[in-house]
Specification:
Blueprint: E1 16-20, E2 29-34, E3 39-43, H1 47-60, H2 77-81
Antiparallel strand pairs: 1-2, 2-3
Length: 83
C-alpha cells in the first residue's frame, strides 16, 4: 500500500465553496470547487479514503456528511481538531 502523497499546488480552505463526492464516474475521485472559479480533482486509492477526504473537507467548510449544515457537535470539525 502506498503511504505517501505528492501535492502540487494548494488551496486555502476558506476559498472552497463546494465538494462533489464522486467526480467523472470515478468513485475514488472528488472535485473541489473554489470561489475563484478553479476546480481541483483529488483522487484517492480507495472509496473509503475518498469518503474520508470528502467528509473532512465538508466539515471544514461547514457542509458535513450528515447534511445538517453545521460542523458543531458529534462528528464535526470541533471533534476533528479537539477543540
Amino acid at each position: 500500500m502506498k503511504e505517501d502523497m505528492t501535492i502540487i499546488g494548494h488551496i486555502n480552505m476558506k476559498n472552497i465553496n463546494n465538494v462533489d463526492e464522486k467526480y467523472g464516474g470515478d468513485s475514488s475521485c472528488l472535485r473541489i470547487q473554489t470561489d475563484t472559479g478553479n476546480d481541483w480533482v483529488l483522487c484517492s486509492s480507495s472509496q473509503t479514503e475518498n469518503q474520508e477526504w470528502y467528509c473532512a473537507i465538508g466539515y471544514a467548510i461547514k457542509k458535513p456528511c450528515d447534511g445538517k449544515g453545521s460542523s458543531k457537535g458529534k462528528g464535526g470539525l470541533d471533534d476533528l481538531v479537539g477543540t
